[in-house]
């Protein structure tokens, strides 16, 4: 029987899950990446070195990475509503308290440690676990829509820059704390871990039983490596595989080294090149817009495969970094716009395909803990790269070597994804012979 002939619920609650995940990541990561704008204000207010100030964000990332396995296991065990809601409350308190900071170690504790755990508890790991449980065939599409919430996070940069100009950076931290409180009731009331809680199967299929056996879905039939898929994956089994560690390295180099470095320093880079802080925040926001558009292309990985889609996206991102390097030769605003388009669209295309790769390999009831430890790779890379980018500038007076480091990290990440080889485990429907879909 064709997949399209299957009964579906008139309204699939999974899209409510996606919508709340979208809003949650928009707020939590909007707070995190607002540091790129606050970074300039903090430098001007206190006169600390760029390396020491960027270390605030580095601490945030390493604490986030260390917290990810804990968060993943907690969501697997207790579900999202209580745990994620408490994380949002912690985030709200920590970020509002940053308004009172007067020493750099205050920021290290509040933004670097407490806010980091709150962001992790409401962030990428638990929301990816949620969406992946509610969608199978349309996994890349659903992950892309929810991940587009990150675009809202980046777009917030211009609004925060304006807010800082109107009410100051201290009051802006308080406003962000109140915003974080706003997502608490949405999580506590509406989130559900599994479609079975609503009497559904993934993708909105209505359960049918024939001859005492649950019908096997088309997606379950699309398996290239049945030995791998038949495993009941848990963390000890996963970490003994090469696929886990190459995905770990891809996280480390792409999200950790490349993305963390660029997003921390891009506004400061624009100011150094003679642009206003407002223009730098605008470029950050445009990056977010194009990142969101790229995420909405998440369906491409359901048709072309994860590896091909990720490689295309990372190639666009490399071209974007080259635009920044060329911009240093002379004052050329269109190169900054080109950067936001290429880098934002490229990373946006990669984001849902990257998440889908992890789910394709290790899906199951223990996916949260497995994915959480894998995301620690991001934490390790991201703990070093913001500080390293600032140190390179402090020593050399230019970001050019740091940008070449970003390019190298993106290339390494692409290689790691091909070695991981999700196509060898679960080919996407678009890559499977049509006869297999009957």
Descriptive terms for the model:
disordered C terminus, Growth Hormone, Chain: A, disordered N terminus, mainly alpha, 438 residues, globular, two-stranded antiparallel ribbon
Condensed summary:
The protein is mostly helical and 438 residues long. The protein is built from 19 helices and two strands.
Question: In terms of topology, how is this protein built?
Answer:
Blueprint: H1 14-33, H2 35-46, H3 50-78, H4 80-97, H5 104-121, H6 124-134, H7 139-147, H8 149-181, H9 184-190, E1 209-210, E2 213-214, H10 218-221, H11 226-229, H12 235-238, H13 242-272, H14 277-295, H15 299-304, H16 306-327, H17 333-362, H18 367-396, H19 400-420
Antiparallel strand pairs: 1-2
Q: Name the structural class.
A: mainly alpha
What's the CATH C level? Mainly Alpha
Helix count, DSSP H or I runs of 4 or more residues: 19
Tally the structural domains: 1
Q: Compute the number of strand runs.
A: 2
Q: Could you give me the name of the CATH homologous superfamily?
A: MFS general substrate transporter like domains
Strand order of the largest sheet: 1-2
Gyration radius, in Å = 21 Å
Mean pLDDT reading: 84
Main β sheet profile: 2 strands, antiparallel
Share of β-strand residues: under 5%
Low-confidence stretches: 1-7, 209-219, 433-438
CATH topology: Growth Hormone, Chain: A
Percent of residues in helical segments?
over 70%
Distance between the termini: 5 Å
CATH architecture: Up-down Bundle
